[in-house]
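fwd from M.: "can u put these together and see what the complex looks like"

so here's what she sent:
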Amino acid sequence: MKNRILVLIMGWAIMGLTYAQNSIDTKVILITLDGFRWQELFTGADSLLVTNKSYVQNPEALKTAFWRDTPIERREALMPFFWNQVSKMGQLHGNRTLGSKVDLTNTMWFSYPGYNEILTGTADDARIRSNDKMPNPNTTILELYNNTKEGKGKVAAFGSWDVFPYIINEERSGVPVNAGYEKATGGDLTEREKMLNDIQQQAPIIWESVRLDVFTHNYALEEMKKNHPKLLYISYGETDDFAHGGFYDFYLQAANRTDAMVRELWEYTQQDEFYKDQTIFLITTDHGRGTRPLETWKSHGSDINGAGGVWFVTFGKGIEAMGEIDQEEQLHSNQIAPTILKYIGLSIPKEMKGIPMKL
Ligand SMILES: [Zn+2]
């Protein structure tokens, strides 16, 4: 009897060690596509918008690119990496027509509250009520990790939107955030970083506060090659801003380009010794958008029906290949932060509202 207990205890100890070892080696890449609807992710181009002259300059060209007979073909045309590769190796949550629901727990349904919820694991409707450049009073998982021995200096964030230095509270957290039209800085800039710094100023500026995703993406990729962060956050922004402008063609094209950028990140991790087979990708959005009346596809916020419905995609190390989730479930955006903490071997703070997902 005594021996059996001893064996059991030793078993637990070994399991614990293996788990800790795995967590130390695990790298996490968290990605967001600002305001990209679950509707397009799961069913592709919208029949009511794709040929709508109010929102599309050249309907014929857009149809050729993204219109197909079935939703399955349409989503594959729009996001080929998500639907040809991620669907085979990972999980796609949030197709509400199949019963899989992912929702925000904040009731604001716009960006700062959404990113605060994703990054801190807790909605804060009392204090995070605008997109103002206010240093976040809450602590993100990037900051938590940066305050550990294993994570110190191994965290980085890149965003197209210039509010991220405040959302992540760059000053307090010490997490380097490159966002908006910021350049890469430091004494050891690569040739590509120098070039990005130059051409970022030469490309057209469409929005003062949101740079084009090509810069955010390539700065982040250079950081991966140069410094190998263990926890990396990338926030793409074009989808939301093109939607606000009412450009459905640019919105779809942005989603299609971002799909290819995520594929590039994944392919990079698979040929880099540091990341290969050790990396988990988690991808989501900060809020949804409307559907009815039709013009509400352009906007979001608590007065827009359905804008609290989002989606969540994951793949990589240890993620079960379940593909598109086609059963009843209810996930929430505040579960992403604690799930990441579990993967990187950090304990979940008592005050964090979200509970980790089992993936
Ligand atoms: Zn927006």
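replying to her w this: The radius of gyration is 20 Å.
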